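This section describes the prediction task in plain terms. A model, or a person checking by hand, is given the sequence of a single protein chain and must write out its three-dimensional structure as a string of tokens. No templates, partner chains or ligands are provided. The sample shown here is typical of the held-out split.
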Amino acid sequence: TPDQLFTPCHVDSFSFTTTVELEPLAEVIGQDRAVESVDFGISIRRQGYNVFAFGPPGSGKRTTIELFLSRAARERPEPDDWCYVYNFEVPQQPRALRLPTGWGVRLTADMEKLVSDLRESLPKAFDSEPVRTRFSRLVEGFAAGKKEPIAAVEALAKEKGLALVQGDDGMMVAPLDEEGEVMTPEVFHALSEEQKAELRANMASTEQALENTQRSLRGIDLEIGEAVEGLRRTVAEEELAARFQPVRNAYRSLPDVLRYLDAVQADVLEHLRFFLTDRERTTESAEGKSKDEDQNSTAGGGTARPKRVKPSRQLRRYRVNVLVDGSKQAGAPVIVESFPTLPNMVGRIEQEQHLGSLRTDFTLIKPGALHSANGGFLVVEMEELAEHPWSWDALKRALKTGVIHIEPPAEPGNTMTTIRLDPEPIPLTSKVLLIGDSGLYFHLVRHDPDFQELFKVGAEFGSEMERFPDGCAQYARFIRTVSEREDLLHFDRAAVSRVVEEGSRLVEDSRMLSTDFLAITNLLRESDFWARKADRDIVSHEDVQQALRAAERRADLARERMYDEYRRGTFFVDTQGEAVGQVNALTVVGRGDFSFGMPIRVTARVRQGSGALIDIEREVELGGPLHSKGVLILSGFLGTRFLPDEPPSMDASLTFEQSYGPVDGDSASSTELYALISGLTGLPVRQDLAVTGALSQFGEVEPIGGVNEKIEGFFDICMQEEGGLTGSQGVLIPAINVVNLMLRQDVITAVSEGKFHIYPITHVDEGLALLLGREVGERDRDGLFPPDSINRLAEDRLRRFADNRRDDDGRRGGTRRVRPRRKVPPSPDVQEDGDGDEG
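The expected answer:
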């Protein structure tokens, strides 16, 4: 009846005039179970209780998660800071420092100031007059001790007519002439052999004495070096202690930082050269300089300021690399990672090119999403994560081990050499929430052994919600919420009613509403557009209707082209008359988010054979498994209804005419049965009716999908015929699908005027009677169907097929055992059910 074709949302059911009078929603509607699951997963603080939110697109998964996370984040403290610092014991393994929120930046600034101060203060300390005096006195004290041994050797040489002279290779012994000058080679050669021999002997003994003296002086030089180095360290220690103490005081409550400062101070002491100029580093050589030489370094009577050197790269070791700065957060962090590559998830270590090689250090360590979300929440789309299997493995490792380990990606083909770092792992305390569809979730449950241990909370979002009693009111508040959030015009209650009706149409159920809030939100946006275009201040029923028409118009090019083919006769579908073995089936064609129905002719051919039921779609690999299942169910029904004790004696073929693509689903199995029965009995099928419905082995007509599109598709084709509707046309649908009807107004009007009909069918016998125009017939007590009934005609022909096969086998001398013909006895079940089926 017309009132069963559409369940309206009555305007009078709303007490408001426009949605401005309503309170916005505080949470997602229609997903109570999922909301409870997300709340539980976020609230429980146990390892492994991470959340996987799954369900159809647009069902509010992300909105729900963001809503709960925003609340939970405000209630939790800001995360601690994490820094990487130089490891002075193992430089390839940078140390991780944990600090209170905001202290990472503070430590960075303090260390920069400390290093800057040391670069100024250490040179000044070594260049100060008191320190230079201490060095000079130390050197002079040792120098006095070196003069006496040399003077003794000089006196010995003088006694022997020799002198000590300074050559390029050091001090050496040389003979003197009569004037006391160093003897020339000519004078030496003019001496007698006895004089030369004596002179050589004196030189040899003097050189030995000089060598012995120099050997003893080298020990004094070592003592001088040790004394200078000791004084140097003392000066440096005094300066470092003065500079480091204020920093230590600032971090006295953080033992890890104090240990780090101790390591820095010790390293600076060992590497003073990083802070000193060449002059300051060679202060200890002052023992070889005279006061006159020192005066060369002055100008205008003042002390010359040492030339400053550029900061050494080595000073980078004293920097602090702040990886996570919690001071930037207001509560716990909520990180949504939309591109979950391995570096984006667990961090990366950048590199610099230098002289043909790559080099890196701890200052080039960059954080990943797990670092940024530490102490808070990380949200990732599972579909994106599945495209990066290394990221998925790294995430599972982090959740299992409880630490974030930076894993450098493999770089095949890279010929440059580099030093690899292995930073100390950072403890992981964040909660991970994945978003995906149901297929991904259940695939991981079945095939990933770690998944359920790490994601114990599955939050399943449904595709529909109850329409009655509160669903319509919740939809109205949802419209109010979206209008406020996106600055849309408010909706009057007639417009709200139309949106509610479309919500039922989307979910194909008059009792339910769609939770595809993305689709509903798009409808609201487009309705707002048409209202503004019409210069309205409020969105009306007509604006919503116009938005629906415009969206359909944008998407229905393929439907229009298909319908043109029907009108031109390219597609063979009859909407009037009768035909044997031919039935109008109904299919749904999907084009992205737009789908439409279209009729297609199903034909059957029957002949004597051995029981082969050929599904042409399956034979050419166009039929899907569900379609093949429907054909096999059909075969089972036929085998039990007609001659159940006889061997099969009929061959038949079924096909969707003019079908050039894949066919799946079992919603045409009842249609195929009607075509087969028509072909078997020779009774013509009405072509002004179209059929949809799945079939059970007991002949029950089971529900199907896309019922609204299928009805409207056949209606549109009938309307294209010359003269329009004939008044006898209509569609057979499963009776259980009546609750799914939310048909267009033009179809409802045609039904109201008796021009179009929709027949709810519960059993195929009802469909057979309607399509073939004859009584179906039930078995009597003798097991026989009534004469001229559909079942009697079908069984009589099958019996003839069986008799012919027996005669053929007999003529060929076959040995097949033939059982005697007998009447089918009635059974208690048949009599009780009254449907003529045995099974």
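For orientation: The radius of gyration is 49 Å.
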